[in-house]
Design brief:
By secondary structure, the protein is an alpha/beta fold. The protein has nine helices and ten strands. It has a single domain, classed as P-loop containing nucleotide triphosphate hydrolases (Rossmann fold, 3-Layer(aba) Sandwich). The protein is about 35% helix and about 25% strand. Helix 7 links the parallel strand 7 (about 155) and strand 8. InterPro entries: AAA+_ATPase, ABC_transporter-like_ATP-bd, ABC_transptr_urea_ATP-bd_UrtE, BCAA_Transport_ATP-bd_LivF, P-loop_NTPase.
Length: about 230
Amino acid sequence: MLNVETINLHYGAAQALKSVSLTAETGKVTCLMGRNGVGKTSTLRAIVGQHPISAGRITWNGEDVSKLAPHARARRGIAIVPQGREIFPLLSVKENLETGYACVRGKDRTIPEVIFELFPVLQSMLTRRGGDLSGGQQQQLAIARALVTRPKLLVLDEPTEGIQPSIIKDIGRAIEWLRDQGDMAIVLVEQYFEFARDLADSFAVMDRGEVVLAGSRAELDEQEVRRHLTV
């Protein structure tokens, strides 16, 4: 289980997160929602170690990882699919996937076959440069690259952004499948309400750097959540 406990995060003098708390359980999807600029991506950066927190604590499976570097968290099974995908455009699809080997050892330095079952288009494009793929295919590649690391906590930052509807459905099915295997916790940042609602086991809604609504899927008040998503 991931526990984010009352964390603060600053960019210089500006406070981006104020006492944010969040949990994510193995075999479940936690959706983090909110408008642009309310602290969702900052929360993910804190979880994976890309930006230090200034107060609070982050624990993963009982271990305090608050001060660990990103690569140390990756070796503990924490993987991120960043907003904007951030694939390597001049590397081939296969080489992009192999960059995931950096935080695994020995027999795990292979590309899992399940990746091509979830995203079959990638198998036919292994020699193509990442930059030549469509936006949706690049998003599938970014998710696949994270899966190469054999994560136990998968963090996805707006995976539907700028993606065509058919690939959004493929990504949704992949997230459902990963959740249903029961050995991975998933944190999903999403503004597309219907996508988040259909996947979420629990949710948290942010506004101005704080969590203002949180609960289980059964407790989700659609009208209230939508009020915090509209500009």
